[in-house]
Amino acid sequence: MLCLYLIFFTICEYLSLHFHYGNCIISIMNLATFFKYPKELAHRQYEALRSHFCEKTPLSEAAKRYGLSESYLRKVRANLEKTCKEKGLPFFSKTKKGPKTSHKADNIKNLVVNLRKQNFSIVDIKSNLEGNQIKVSLDTINRILKEAGFSRLPRRTYEGKRSLSFPKKISNPRASQLIVENEEFSTGVSGGILVFLPLLEELGIISAIKQAGFPETQDISALSYILSFLALKLMGTRRISHDDNWASDRVLGLFAGLNVLPKNSSLSSYSYRISRETNRSFLLALSQIFNENNDQGEFNIDFKTIPHWGDSSILEKNYVPTRKNSMKSVLSLIVQSISQSQQYISYTNAELKKLDQHDAILEFVDF
To answer: Number of folded domains in the chain?
Structure first.
């Protein structure tokens, strides 16, 4: 009776295991079939060579058993023996484990975090680091900031962007120096711009640009940057963000001393690095060039309000004649010099405040 009970219990236990773990039994049977009856070519080669070397099966019989030709299996054995002599065993090689931490050092992370605390955007952080010869991608900067818990930077005003400090030299490895050689290339309507180069040199404007102290990068000089702006202006481009039509024109690049003009993002970021002191020095040099007789002459002085259309602004409200009301705007002063031979803009100031409006005329007199 006890034996019958044990037999019955064993059968029930087996049925229970089969019921609960039926899928596992089927998987084990599939794996057994996989090892007993290989289908893939690499697997059949492995089993045939294993049978030949371990079980001393002749090549002809091993090849026939696993669906291979004897000559092919002989070639595979020769290649295996050659590989083992030169590089070692090719089977079950150890896989390299990737790094568990980021490739970037902690000091770079600290630099990124410190710059974000100064309200630098991701693009500004990249420009600042590249100016200090530190190469970091935008994705890496974004990941570092997210890991540090920083949220998206709110939209900044022009004054906020101007308050940022950047290195004077900004690394830009994509720029290439112009190599003057005998070369022919086609152009659209920009060929006539080259006639201005002798005039700029004769008037001394090239020297004035060099002496004004405009910022530059390691690869693009201040002269090439300013001539790039001038090239777009001479071609009638109203905004530097619309320079896509001229970005690959070789003639415009030749005008600026480059292979092609810098991208609009480069020109836009460069404009934030130009200070009022630099512009003032350049205007002073131009006034000395055009005022040949060094006489006092006559001037047209005009205050111009430039409206601001952004959502938020720290600008003051000024009266805009065209709108017939006061609105957020930039108050600027434009002075035109008038002489018997020529007329030119001799002085500008776009950083005026209401309290300084009356003193702006005296500042021009000092200038």
So the answer is: 5
State whether 204 and 247 are in the same domain: yes
Instruction: Report whether 252 contacts 235 (CB < 8 A).
Output: yes
Statement to judge: residues 51 and 25 lie in one domain: no
Q: Nearest to residue 66, comparing CAs of 88, 50, 55?
A: 50
Dihedral (CA of 23, 25, 29, 34) sign: positive
Closest CA to 293 of 257, 250, 336, 340: 340
CA–CA separation, 361 vs 338, rounded Å? Answer: 17
Instruction: Report how far apart, in Å, the C-alpha atoms of 330 and of each of 108, 311, 318, 320 are.
Output: 38, 15, 8, 10
Pairing of strands 317-320, 343-352: unpaired
Write the pLDDT tens digit of every residue in 216-275. 888 888 999 999 888 888 887 666 565 566 767 788 888 888 888 887 778 888 888 888
Confidence of residue 349 (pLDDT cuts 50, 70, 90): confident
Rounding to the nearest 10 degrees, give the CA dihedral for residues 310, 311, 314, 316: 70
Q: Is residue 295 part of a domain?
A: yes
Non-local CB neighbours of 216 within 8 Å, separated by 6+ positions? 168, 169, 222, 225
Distance CA 145, CA 112 (A): 7
Q: Furthest-apart CA pair in the chain: how many Å? A: 134
Domain assignment present for 219 = yes
What is the helix, strand, coil percentage profile of the chain, to 5?
A: 50, 10, 40
Q: Are 229 and 252 in contact (CB under 8 A)?
A: no
Phi and psi, residue 299, nearest 5°: -135, 140
Q: Which residues form the domain of 143?
A: 106-162
- Whether the pTM exceeds 0.70: the reply is no
Q: Is residue 298 within 8 Å of 321, Cβ to Cβ?
A: no
